[in-house]
Amino acid sequence: MNWNNVRFLLLFAACLVRPQIAGAQDDSFAFSSCVPACDQAYEKAQGVLTADVQNGKFLAGQNWPQVWTRDTSYSTELACALLHPDVAKTTLLGLTQSVDGIGECWYQDVCGHFGGWPHLTDAIVGAGGMWSLYQVTGDRTLLRPLYDRTVRSLQRAERDAFNPKIGLFSGCASFMESDSAYPQKYANNGAALDNTYDLSTCLLYYQGYVVAADAGQLLGEPVRPLREKAARLKDAINTRLWLPEEGYYGYFMDENGDLNPRMEGLGEALAVLTGVASPKRADQLLRSTPTSLWGFPCLWPQFAEWRDYQRNDAFYYHNGMIWPFVEGYWAWAASRMKNQEVFGRELDALIRLSEKNDTFMEFYHPEDGKPDGSPRQLWSASGFLSMIYHGLFGMDFETNGIRFAPVVPPQFEFGPLSLKNVKYRNDRLNIVIRGHGTTIDTFKLDGKIQTNPFFAASNSGDHQIEITMK
After folding, report:
1. Does residue 69 contact residue 126 with C-beta atoms inside 8 Å?
2. Hey, is 377 helix, strand or coil?
3. C-beta separation of 318 from 180 below 8 A
4. Distance CA 278, CA 284 (A)
5. What does the DSSP 8-state code read for residue 111?
6. Does a cis peptide bond (omega within 30 degrees of 0) precede residue 375?
7. DSSP string, 16-78
8. Using an 8 Å Cβ cutoff, are 404 and 455 in contact?
C-alpha cells in the first residue's frame, strides 16, 4: 500500500471519529474537513464567539470586556454577520456618538497611547461592518441608520482629517494605536499623527464612500458626489502610497511627505478586498508582500526600538506581531484572487497557532508563535472562521444572494468539506465540496446542475449545495 492510500485511510478514520471540543454549541454551522486540526480550530473559534456575547452585545475579549467599534465591525465582516446577526445588529446600532456641528456619527474608539479623535480617525470602519450585515441578512431597517451615520462621519472627517492638497485622510493606522506601531519619535504623541496619512485608514474612508453610495442608492438618495469622492480617494491612494520598487503599498506618509517603506498587513489586505488595488497590482502585492514563519504580521519589518519582549506587551504590541484577524483578511484577499498558495499557507499557519492553547489569543510572536495578549479574542476567532466561509467555501455575500468561488488547497483533497445547517435569511443550507483547486467543475443546487455558482436570496427553506472542484 502506498503512502497516499495510507494517508487517505487515516483521514477517513478521523472523519468518522471527530473529537468533541469544548465550545461547540449545536449542529448549526457544523463544519467537517477530515483534517482534525482544522476541525478542532473551527469548533474552538465558534466557542470563542459564543463566550464573547454578553448582554446581547459583542465584547472584544477576555481582557477587553468592552464594546469596540473596530473589533465589532471587523468581526462582523469576517464571520459574525453570518453566525450572530442579531448580536451584530444590536452592537453596531449602539456604536454612535454626537459630534458638535455634525450630528450622530460612528463612535471613535480611543487608546492609551494616542487618545482618540483626531489622532485616531478610523471610526468609519463601522460602515463596512453594517454593510456586510445588510448583505448577509437583507435587513432593510439597517439602511437608513447606515447611510445617515456614515455620511455624517464622512463629513466630520472631511472637516477634521482630510488634506485636499494630497487627497488623503490623516490619523493613526486602524487598530495600530500603540507606540510600538510607529517610530520612536511618535511615542505618546497622538498629535504627531495628525499630519501622517496611513494606508488602512484611507482605505476605510474609500470603503465608507462606496458603502454610503450603495446604501443611499437603495434609499433613493443622490449618491453621485459620494462616488466621485471615492474615485478621487482611490486615485490618491494608488498615486501616493504605492511602492513600485517593493510591489506593495507603503505603511504611511509622514509629516515630511516621505513614505514609510514598511508594509502594513491590514492595509495590504484591504487594498485587494476593496478593489483599490487593480487586479495586476493585487497579484503583484500577494507575491511581493513579506511575511513571517508563523503567519502574516501586522507590519514588517519590525521596528528595532520596540523589540524588547521582556517588558509588558504594550511595549511591542503592534511591532510585527501576528494578529489572527489580520491573517483572516489577508487569507480572504488571497482567496479573492484565487491565490491558492498564499491562502493555504495562512490557513495552515493559523491552525498551528490555534494549537498553542485552548483559545484564540489576541496576537502571537512572529519568531516562535508564542501566544500573547488577551485570551478569547473575538476578532481572532472571526479571522479563522472567515478563512473557512470566505476562503475554503468561497462565499461572497451580495445584496441578492451568495456567490461561490471556493479555494481548496491540496491538503483538503481527501475531504469532502462539509458545512451543515447554515442559517442564511429564510434558508438553511447544507454545503458539500469535493476535490481541490480554485475552479468549479460542477455546481448543484438540490441535485440539479447550475451554470452559475450562485444561491439566490429569494429562495426559502432547506437546500443542498454540492460543489465539485476541477
Report:
1. yes
2. coil
3. yes
4. 10
5. B
6. no
7. HSPPP-TT--SSTTEEE-S-HHHHHHHHHHHHHHHHTEETTEE--BTTB-S--HHHHHHHIII
8. yes
CA distances from 338 to 282, 284, 333, 386, 411 (A): 11, 13, 9, 15, 16
Cell of 286: 500577494
- Measured distance CA(294)–CA(366) in Å, rounded: 6
Are 112 and 314 contacting, i.e. CB atoms less than 8 angstroms apart?
yes
Task: Give 11 or 62, the one with higher predicted confidence.
Answer: 62
Q: For residue 447, with 0-12 CB atoms within 10 Å meaning exposed, 13-18 middle and 19 or more buried, which class applies?
A: exposed
Cell of 287: 507575491
Check: CB of residue 41 under 8 Å from CB of residue 51: no
Joined together, the cell numbers standing for residue 299 give 507590519
Do the Cβ atoms of 295 and 326 come closer than 8 Å?
Answer: no
- Grid cell 432547506 in the structure block, residue: 462
pLDDT tens, 218-252? 999 999 999 999 999 999 999 999 999 999 999 99
C-alpha 365/C-alpha 296 separation (Å) is 11
- pLDDT at residue 358 in the model: 95
- Residue 24 — pLDDT band, cuts 50, 70, 90? very low
Whether 381 contacts 351, CB under 8 Å: no
Length of the chain as a residue count: 470
Phi, psi of 336 (to 5 degrees): -60, -35
C-alpha–C-alpha distance, residues 306 and 320, integer Å: 10
Q: Which amino acid is at 325?
A: F
Residue 351: which of 372, 331, 373 has the closest Cα? 331
- Identify the band that residue 2 occupies on the pLDDT scale cut at 50, 70 and 90: very low
pLDDT of amino acid 287: 96
Do 381 and 64 contact (CB within 8 A), yes or no? Answer: no
24 versus 392: the higher-pLDDT residue is 392
Backbone angles phi, psi at 321, to 5 degrees: -70, 160
Chain centroid to CA 415: how far?
A: 26
Distances (CA, A) of 313 to 36, 363, 374, 375: 32, 10, 10, 14
Round to whole Å and give the CA distance between 197 and 211: 21
The 10s digit of each residue's pLDDT in 302-314 is 999 999 999 999 9
Closest-CA residue to 299 (of 322, 333, 282, 274): 322
d(CA 152, CA 159): 11
Confidence band, pLDDT 50/70/90 cuts, at residue 27: low
What 8-state DSSP symbol labels residue 349? H
